[in-house]
Amino acid sequence: MGMVQRQHEFVEDLIKLLQFAHERGFVVTMGEVYRPIEMQEIYVRTGRSRTMKSSHLQRLAVDLNFFVKESPGLRLTWSKEEIHPIGEYWEGLRPGKNRWGGNFRSFKDVPHFERENR
Q1: Is the pTM here over 0.70, yes or no?
Q2: Which of 1, 54, 109, 117 places its Cα 20 to 30 Å from the Cα of 70?
């Protein structure tokens, strides 16, 4: 499968994920999607990432900001417990292809949602 098709499937699943989160009361904004190689090098050097094989380099990953509605406004959360149902939904859309950073073994990255870039 070519890169365009993989990116297209990623966006299709992202639409479903955003709708699922919305239905559960979250307000979601986009963080980082595409990341140039130079920025990835900085992230690895400063400890924000542990790999030079990030799916962000291929436009196959997104970092999302999840807000919970609370009086009088919104509260940003990166809590694994609060976002867990969203992460499980994401991985269930395409098992083995979609990965949620909250389930990464060595480096928890709760706001991160990706498609395998192979």
Answers
A1: yes
A2: 109
CATH number, domain containing residue 73: 3.30.1380.10
Residue with tokens 């979609």: 98
pLDDT in tens, 2-23: 999 999 999 999 999 999 999 9
- Domain extent for 55: 3-115
Q: How many Cα atoms are found within 13 Å in the side-chain-facing hemisphere of 94? A: 16
Computed from CA positions of residues 35, 48, 92, 68, in that sequence, does the dihedral angle turn out positive or negative? negative
Instruction: In whole angstroms, give the CA distance from residue 69 to residue 71.
Output: 7
**CA 65 from chain center: how many Å?**
9
Nearest-CA neighbor of 3 among 60, 62, 63?
60
CA atoms within 13 A on the CB side of 75: 9
Domain count, the chain: 1
What is the identity of the amino acid at 48?
A: R
Residue 69 has phi, psi (to 5 degrees) of: -75, 125
